[in-house]
Model the fold of this input.
Amino acid sequence: MMKTLIATCALMAVMCHQWVLAQELTLGSKAPKLEVKKFIKGEEVKSFEKGKIYVVETWATWCPPCKISIPHLTELQKKYEDVTIIGVSVLEKNQGGVPDFVEEMGEKMDYRVAIDLVPEDGEVSDGKFVQGWMLPSDELGLPTAFIINGEGKIAWIGSPFSMDEPLEKIVKGKWDLVAEAKKVVDAKALQKKLTAIFEQVQQLYQQFNTDGEPDELLKALDSATKEVPDRALDFRLLRFQVLSLVKERASDAYAAAKELLASDKGDDPELLNKIAWVVVDPDRDTKADAKLTKLALQVALKADELTNQENPSVADTLAKAYFDNGDLVKAVKTQERVVELAEGTPMAQDASLRKRLRQYKKALDAASAKDKAEGGTTKALK
Done:
């Protein structure tokens, strides 16, 4: 878990750094020129007219979330007839298939549709929309929507699934662009600060991983907690993880866990699950302290209760906590519930769920055989 989290921190640092460098098109910026190859549905839009509101959305035929957002955009177009919604197909290896896709969608895709202008012999990433809109705003994910207000300025950028409220306010003239732009600037400053912190944490963790001395890393995490109070809980959780890996600091790790549990997020199932998983994570190099392992079971049980025993991720943690505490019967029973709950969800693709179930059953069978041989004394079966 620790290695995974540190790797995540490193990735976040790189992403944050790229965001700071690339962020040129933002709220309040003049909307770039709309250069497309052609419109394949609806009346062509050559420029953004003053006094009119536009929504320009990036999408692709190969993008599953885009297919989900299309009907939603159609609903918004019907609701706001005076708003011009344009879907620009980008990053298509075969632009020739776009018209057939749009025709097949029919009334589900009832707004203007255009295709990005890609230079002859150029790469799909060389498209005018990609280069003029997506890269400068660092919005490389699909789908992404840009709302242009009546003054021709970018008023909002984000997922079309989150667009309803800002679009309504912009239409009604209740959108405070200055305030919203400030939020973006503040977010940019925060990301820059977090980038520096994550890079330092990554370096210090590598040092800790080499010499086993956590003090410098812990000091950095304590400093980060004070420097970015809004993310204090995350840094405190990471601090707990570091302490849990040091055998001699088990009591400190226990105190750190109790401190997290006493916070205002102490009844949050997600936090509880993270705390427990730190202790029982199968990827740990060494088994956690026995006191921590017992605490992990208590915490996992609470998280399972708070989620009405219906969250497969939480149940997976609980099953491992049972296993690590020697309760093999409950470990198997709970992991069977995990597999059942995961059915039909993305978690069903995680082979480790069934692997752990086989591991628990194998241990239970061995304990049963031992119990039989010793005349019913095996604690794990009681």
About this structure: The first strand starts at residue 36 and ends at 41. Confidence is low (pLDDT under 50) at residues 1-8, 10-23. The beta strands are 36-41, 54-59, 84-89, 112-116, 144-148, 154-158.
